[in-house]
Amino acid sequence: MTAPPLRRTRARDVMSTRVVSVSPETEFDEVARVLARNAVRAVPVVEGTRLLGVVSEADLLRIAEFGDPPGRDPVRRWREPRRPTTARTLMSTAVVTVRPEASVAEAARRMRQGGVSWLAVTEFRGAAEHVVGVLGRTDILSVFLRDDAELRAEVIEGVVRPILGDAADAVSVDVDRGVVTLCGTVSRRGQASRIGALVGRLEGVVAVHDQLVSEEWIEPIAGPLY
């Protein structure tokens, strides 16, 4: 029996194509306004759609540590460090990105490893990297907002039935707010382990209560019962 393909959400499926960005010559104050107006913590710096870098709240705060601009005293102006004033001079070029075809699991891993709350979704056109969307934590978490009935059907038709075939009816599947409970008896120990492992990897599964029992685990009782 051929199992139906399991749902695999990609970055392109949940990303926002409305990209809030700034140009490299955008002034400090305007970058701050863009962040505040759009309630975002960072924006990509682009030329057209070509990715150059990213400016975050942290970058702006670092510049704020310079304090007030130097006065008119030419000696003081010479001694003061030059204050970055545009996105080009503010930005970091170490941008955490993900490709449109990447899974949401890979995107979540990149977010965690990079310590960021959003990713630029990019693709290469020639040697240049271009922004095609942005992906936030809320976008990734949206894969867990699945209907219990839909998820139960995928567990049965995508995992249990392909492994057990006609014996699939011996397994009961209940789903409550993403928590899957598996009950029943299967013939081989490996089947029980495989079902539990695969169900735990399905998108939208919060937890698995695996109560499957294998006939290989049931020891016969020797001798008479009297």
TrEMBL record:
Residues 147-216 form the BON domain. The keyword Oxidoreductase does not apply. Keywords: CBS domain. It comes from the Bacteria. The keyword Transmembrane does not apply. Pfam families: BON, CBS. Residues 15-70, 91-150 form the CBS domain. This is BON domain-containing protein. The lineage of its organism: Bacteria, Bacillati, Actinomycetota, Actinomycetes, Pseudonocardiales.
